[in-house]
Amino acid sequence: IALVPGLTTDAFYITMNRGAQAAADALGVELVFQGAPDFNPVLQVPVLDAVIARGPDAILIAPTDKTQLVEPLRKAHDAGISVLTVDTFIGSGVYQTGAGEADFPLSYIASDNVLGGRMAARALAEAIGGEGPVYVSNVKPGISTTDQREEGFKLEMAENFPGVTVLETQFNDNDANKAATQLQGVLAREPGLKGVFGANLFSALGAGTGVQQAGQTGVVKVVAFDAPTSIVDNIKTGLVDVAIAQHPAEIGYYGVVSAYAYLTGNSIPVAIGTGFTVMDSSNIDDPEVAKYIYSD
Ligand code: T6T
Known about the structure:
Layout: E1 2-4, H1 11-27, E2 32-33, H2 41-54, E3 58-61, H3 70-78, E4 82-86, E5 108-111, H4 113-127, E6 132-138, H5 144-160, E7 164-166, E8 170-171, H6 176-189, E9 195-198, H7 201-213, E10 221-225, H8 230-236, E11 242-246, H9 248-263, E12 271-274, E13 276-279, H10 287-290
Parallel strand pairs: 1-2, 1-3, 3-4, 4-5, 5-12, 6-7, 6-8, 6-9, 9-10, 10-11
Antiparallel strand pairs: 11-13
């Protein structure tokens, strides 16, 4: 079984691989972790081609673009390799319906990202007292996860927090430095900025750094998606109010278990949803919460 992450150097996917390896060890299957150094379809497709050439029985992949990975993955499918997607999806993410061009993957194992975006909106609205301008620091359009988080965030604000204005999204290409610079730019244009939602690990890290560099810690509230080890300090110093941790090890574990079940003749669910853990200063020292901090 091959696991192709969005990128190799991201604590989220490193943690996913840990869970995948635990399942592989339990089942006695060989797991290969092979990916690109950046979250970019142009880099991921050649890695995928190399993985297909190795002829694994199954590929678990976090596609870096909803549309650009469809044809490259169809090659794997046509070669008789079972394809499951983890974290992100292709097409609409609804598989095995017989209806779509991109419904050939067997299963989608991931967080509910619309819900996660809604949870982030509630946390940020609460942190700013339900009033004022905020924005989403996001990666780039076309990534299923981060698109859905932004969608959920905006829906929740529009439906339940009329006092909050959501400014234009800033896209950082998964570059934390760019996200930090953008924070300063938004603050210059909108001095009353109250908060920012960092829609993934690098967006949140960068937005936090931007707030810190601007001397606005605790004034501009930060809600972070994802939980690298640095999140502990950032929560304790008050730079980050809330972090929404995904459960990447679960995604990896159930990805491998699902692939194995399918390959050994069992039917599998077309979708498996994994959970979240909401971290803040009140619970970050609790071992039952801290165990969800990502490994790096
Ligand atoms: O947020 C995760 C993942 O869910 C997303 O698809 C891409 O970014 C991360 O890997 C965090 O960097």
